[in-house]
């Protein structure tokens, strides 16, 4: 966000700030009303949103909390710059377009009017309409840049592109990798290790397209992509992960959006520590593969690398063989494993306790990358802070709407 953005009037700012509690206090009712209204009037948006969430009654609060956060910082939008970048990256992976903002804005305003008719005076409506338009223009501007940049690069494209599954490989009991190459045989966009792509599929029996993000799990090679998908079971099996695992085979086609995301290696000139649990290993193995391929690391023992992973059992340990292989090749790489359900030689048992590694880990000068369930990442982050790692050296990715740890 730059100071070149048109500014809102003091009057608008005052009204928006005074009505923030309207959004904050409305709770789940407002979100449910908003989505119900939007999908009734604009069912085409069901092709963009995760309809599994809608069916299960789980709602995405992210949009409303982002709007409330924006309203709170309305005089200093630069405070939200990091969040805007993250959301814009996510939106472009979903192929969100400028005209969608008008639709979302309309249903937002109508929801407020319908749920809080007394507080929603013409002055409040005018202020919120102006403020929403201002926020939308920031996103539309950044997203246009991302789309243009993606199109201009070698192998770049916008929106869904047909890919063919070149290989399908089980990495563990739960995780399966898919290597995807364009059906048109053209090159693909390079990406930063840690970024994700979105796949767009219509499983049999589904009424709408479903889009899900998957981290790239290998280094960028300009010709194909690898993703690694965990089978999500539970009360109701995950729709897309099970479809990919059960129904998609080598030779099948699926649609892929260009890589996106703001989680990637900050520096190759510091020690790097990768800390994951479960399928959270995917963006981190991409970072490790990228560094391993860089001859400076391999040949000159440049910067230490640490790969720490937690999962339940060796059978659920994805990429275990590959990590061992890389450890054999790279003197700078040390790996540590925790199995919560089994005792195994050469690994720790239980949760990932980091205190015993205090003397080993580069707590003063390393960059630390976390990925896994939010509870796990919070557990690891708190320990890193206790060990003296600076907060700005801890980077993480959430496999869902972003949350502060
Ligand atoms: C940036 C990013 C990167 C990601 N990278 C990866 C990756 O590398 N690998 C990977 O495997 N995943 C990754 N994900 C997660 C992935 O995008 C999907 O969210 C995941 O595969 C689940 O999708 P699904 O369609 O199978 O489940 P959904 O159908 O969307 O359901 C989600 C969860 O809710 C449960 N559920 C569904 N319906 C109900 C119901 N009625 N009641 C109760 N619970 C229900 C499901 O069991 C599942 O656990 C990433 C996500 C993001 C945002
Ligand atoms: C100013 C308006 C908007 C704001 C503030 C906003 C905010 C957000 C935020 C905070 C997230 C979660 C990002 C993350 O951390 O993963 C998100 C996700 C998402 N947004 Fe937006 N958004 C806006 C407009 C739109 C529009 C116009 C569309 C398209 C119709 C859209 C579609 C989505 C979708 C599909 C997701 C993924 C979550 C899901 O499937 O439910 N958003 N948005």
Helix content: 40-55%
- Uncertain spans: none
CATH class of the largest domain: Mainly Alpha
Ends distance: 24 Å
What is the H level of CATH, i.e. the homologous superfamily of the largest domain? Globins
Number of domains: 3
Bound molecules: flavin-adenine dinucleotide, protoporphyrin IX containing FE
Could you tell me the radius of gyration in angstroms?
A: 23 Å
Overall geometry:
globular
Care to count the β-strands?
Answer: 12
Strand content: 15-25%
Q: What is the mean predicted local confidence, pLDDT?
A: 92
Number of helices: 12
Going by CATH, the architecture of the largest domain would be Orthogonal Bundle
Q: Order of strands across the widest beta sheet?
A: 4-3-6-1-2-5
Order of helices and strands: HHHHHHHEEEEEHEEHHEHEEEHE
**In the CATH scheme, what's the topology name of the largest domain?**
Globin-like
- Class inferred from helices and paired strands: alpha/beta
The largest β sheet comes out as: 6 strands, antiparallel
Secondary structure layout plus pairing:
Layout lengths: L9 H9 L1 H22 L9 H6 L5 H11 L8 H13 L4 H18 L6 H31 L8 E10 L4 E8 L13 E6 L8 E6 L9 E6 L8 H9 L5 E4 L15 E6 L3 H13 L1 H6 L4 E7 L8 H10 L3 E7 L8 E2 L17 E5 L2 H14 L6 E4 L8
Helix pairs in contact: 1-7, 2-4, 2-6, 5-7, 6-7
Bound molecules: flavin-adenine dinucleotide and protoporphyrin IX containing FE.
What does this molecule look like?
It contains twelve helices and twelve strands. With 405 residues, the chain is an alpha/beta fold. The chain has three domains: 10-152, Orthogonal Bundle (Globin-like), CATH 1.10.490; 161-256, Translation factors (Elongation Factor Tu (Ef-tu), domain 3); 272-397, Nucleotide-binding domain of ferredoxin-NADP reductase (FNR) module (Rossmann fold). The strands form two sheets. A six-stranded antiparallel beta sheet has the order 4-3-6-1-2-5. A six-stranded parallel beta sheet has the order 10-9-8-7-11-12, with helices on both faces. Helix 2 (20-41) crosses helix 6 and helix 5 (81-93) packs across helix 7. The protein starts with 9 loop residues before the first helix and ends in an 8-residue tail after the last strand. The mean pLDDT is 92. Flavin-adenine dinucleotide is lined by residues 50, 52, 56, 196, 212-215, 228-230, 232, 234-242, 279, 282, 397, 399-400.
């Amino acid at each position: 966000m730059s100071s070149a953005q048109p500014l809102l009037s003091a009057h608008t700012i005052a009204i928006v700030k005074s009505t923030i509690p309207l959004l904050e206090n409305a709770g789940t009712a407002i979100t449910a009303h908003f989505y119900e209204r939007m999908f009734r009037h604009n069912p085409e948006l069901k092709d963009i949103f995760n309809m599994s969430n809608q069916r299960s009654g789980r709602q995405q609060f992210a949009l409303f909390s982002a709007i409330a956060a924006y309203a709170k910082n309305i005089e200093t939008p630069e405070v939200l710059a990091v969040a805007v970048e993250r959301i814009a990256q996510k939106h472009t992976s979903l192929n969100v377009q400028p005209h969608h903002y008008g639709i979302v804005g309309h249903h937002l305003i109508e929801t407020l009017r319908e749920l809080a008719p007394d507080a929603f005076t013409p002055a409040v409506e005018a202020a919120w309409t102006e403020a929403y338009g201002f926020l939308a223009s920031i996103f539309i501007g950044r997203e246009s840049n991302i789309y243009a940049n993606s199109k201009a690069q070698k192998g770049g494209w916008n929106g869904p592109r047909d890919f063919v599954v070149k290989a399908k490989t089980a990495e563990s009991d739960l995780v399966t990798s898919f290597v995807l190459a364009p059906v048109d045989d053209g090159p693909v966009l390079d990406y930063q290790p840690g970024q994700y792509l979105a796949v767009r599929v219509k499983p049999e029996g589904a009424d709408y397209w479903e889009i899900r993000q998957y981290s790239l799990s290998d280094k960028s090679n300009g010709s194909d992509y690898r993703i690694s998908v965990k089978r999500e079971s539970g009360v109701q099996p995950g729709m897309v992960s099970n479809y990919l695992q059960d129904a998609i085979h080598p030779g099948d086609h699926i649609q892929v959006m260009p890589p996106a995301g703001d989680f990637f290696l900050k520096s190759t000139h510091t020690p790097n520590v990768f800390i994951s649990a479960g399928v959270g290993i995917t963006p981190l193995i991409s970072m490790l593969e990228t560094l391993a391929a860089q001859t400076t690391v391999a040949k000159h023992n440049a910067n230490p690398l640490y790969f720490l992973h937690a999962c339940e059992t060796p059978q659920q340990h994805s990429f275990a063989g590959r990590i061992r292989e890389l450890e054999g090749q790279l003197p700078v790489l040390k790996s540590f494993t925790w199995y919560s359900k089994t005792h195994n030689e050469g690994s720790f048992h239980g949760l990932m306790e980091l205190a015993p590694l205090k003397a080993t880990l580069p707590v003063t000068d390393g960059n630390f990358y976390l990925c896994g369930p939010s509870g796990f990442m919070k557990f690891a982050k708190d320990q890193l802070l206790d060990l003296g790692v600076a907060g700005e050296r801890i980077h993480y990715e959430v496999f869902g709407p972003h949350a502060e740890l």
